[in-house]
Specification:
InterPro entries: Adhesion/Biosynth-related (IPR050904), FAS1_dom_sf (IPR036378), FAS1_domain (IPR000782)
Organism: Alteraurantiacibacter palmitatis
Mean pLDDT: 84
Radius of gyration: 15 Å
Protein name: Fasciclin domain-containing protein
Distance between the termini: 29 Å
Strand content: 15-25%
Pfam families: Fasciclin
Shape: globular
Structural class: alpha+beta
Order of helices and strands: HHHHHEHHHEHEEEEE
Keywords: Signal
Largest sheet: 7 strands, mixed
Length: 188
């Protein structure tokens, strides 16, 4: 895409990419995520705790022992899966990860986190600069996600080749930013 296409796309879809053709279920989750995003008074964890659509994510962050880290100074960019995203995992996966495989869970969760403030405009510019191969995002667990714009939406591809669509962007927090995604991404 050229800069002339991406910048207007960003302007029209700045906070809710669902308007660019996402499913109604994703739209509801994105709308709720945006409503629960207060001014930058709370940390990423505070923003997630304040939104019922992130209750599974919050429970997972607690089980993995990442509350203190994600409440720290940052800045962090979190690609935050909604409850509906976690529900797409095979039955029993969340329960197993949050009870007996918390180390694995920590690796999965840190695959959703990027060091620094990566705003939607910056991500779109990086995708444009990367060309057809997509933009490789290095996460805090050391693995990469590939970001592309497909059908007007930012799509992340994980190490296994699975995709997740960004459904809302630039949800502010005092220590970073949250972008809402519709599928849990896996590091490998």
């Amino acid at each position: 895409m050229t800069k002339r296409i991406i910048l207007p796309l960003l302007a029209t879809c700045a906070l809710a990419l669902p308007g660019c053709g996402q499913a109604a279920e994703s739209e509801a989750a994105a709308d709720t995520a945006m409503e629960a995003a207060p001014a930058t008074t709370g940390t990423i964890v505070d923003v997630a705790v304040g939104n019922p659509d992130f209750s599974t994510l919050v429970a997972a962050v607690q089980a993995a022992g990442l509350v203190e880290t994600l409440s720290g100074t940052g800045p962090f960019t979190v690609f935050a899966p909604t409850n509906a995203a976690f529900a797409k995992l095979p039955a029993g996966t969340v329960e197993t990860l949050t009870t007996t495989e918390t180390e694995t869970l920590g690796g999965i969760l840190t695959y959703h986190v990027v060091a620094g403030n990566v705003m939607a405009a910056d991500l779109l510019a990086a995708i444009e600069g990367a060309g057809d191969a997509g933009y490789a995002i290095t996460t805090v667990n050391g693995a990469t996600l590939t970001a592309r714009v497909l059908d007007g939406a930012v799509v992340l591809t994980d190490a296994a080749g699975n995709s997740s669509t960004v459904t809302a962007t630039d949800v502010p927090a005092s220590n970073g930013v949250i972008h809402v995604i519709d599928t849990v991404v896996m590091p490998g």
